[in-house]
Amino acid sequence: MHVLIKSFVACCGLCLSLAVSAAPLSSLLGDKDCFGTGGACTEGEWLPGGWSLSATGSDPSFTDRLFNTSATQLWAHNVVAGSYSSASLTFRTAGIADISGPYDIFADGVLVGSLPLDGFGHIIVETFTFTLDPTLLLDGLVNISFTPNASDSWAIDFSEIVYDGAQVPEPESLLLLGMGLLGLVGARRKLRR
C-alpha cells in the first residue's frame, strides 16, 4: 500500500510538471520592423522616416498599418484554443496627438485598457501592453478594436498576443491520467511476481 501511495504522488507530480512545462506561445500580426526601419528605433523617439511609411508587399498586411480616420479599427488574432493561466496583448504605435482621448482598447468586446490622454500625445514610438483575461482564448480567436475618435494619423507596427503555453488541465483529466498511471504500475508489479 505504501508503494501504491508513493506511485500515486509521483504520477500526480508528473501530471503537474507536464501541465506547466510548455514554453509561452504567441500570435503576431506584423513583423516588429519598427515601421519599416528594420527595427531601428527606440521607445519615445519620433517616428523614423516621417509619414512616408506604408505596408510593402514583403510585409504582412498589418505591418506599418497607417490610417487617418476616426473609424473603429479592428483586427483579429488566431491563437491555439485552450485554457491558459495568463495572456497579454502588446502593440507598437506612433503618430497620434492628443486631439481626443483616452482611447479604449477592447478584446472580444471587453475593455482591457486605454491609451491615456497624457498631455504630450502619442506622436512618438510607444509600445503598449495590456493584460487579457485568458478565457478570451478559449475559442482560439481574439478580436481587437479601438476607436480613434478623431481623424488623426496613426501607425501600428505590430500586434502580439502572448499566452503561457501551459494549458491548465481539467481536474477530471488529471484524475484519469493518475488512475491510468496507477493501473500501469499495478500491472508491472503483477508481471514481476
- Oligomer kind: single chain
Main β-sheet, in a few words?
A: 5 strands, antiparallel
| Average pLDDT score | 73
- Work out the number of β strands: 9
Number of helices: 2
Helix/strand order, N-terminal first: HEEEEEEEEEH
- Helix content percent band: 10-25%
Unreliable runs, pLDDT <50, ≥5 residues? 14-21
Radius of gyration: 24 Å
The proportion of residues in beta strands is 25-35%
- Given helix and strand content, the structural type is alpha+beta
How far apart are the first and last residues' alpha carbons, in Å?
Answer: 16 Å
The coarse silhouette is elongated
Give a verbal description of the structure.
This protein has 193 residues and is of the alpha+beta class. Helices cover 21% and strands 32% of the residues. It has helices spanning 2-20, 171-192, and strands spanning 25-30, 65-69, 73-78, 87-94, 103-107, 110-115, 126-132, 141-146, 152-163. β5 and β6 form a beta hairpin. It is elongated and about 80 Å long. The two termini are 16 Å apart. The model is unreliable at 14-21 (pLDDT under 50).
How do the strands and helices of this protein lay out in sequence?
Blueprint lengths: L1 H19 L4 E6 L34 E5 L3 E6 L8 E8 L8 E5 L2 E6 L10 E7 L8 E6 L5 E12 L7 H22 L1
Antiparallel strand pairs: 1-9, 2-9, 3-8, 4-7, 4-9, 5-6, 5-8
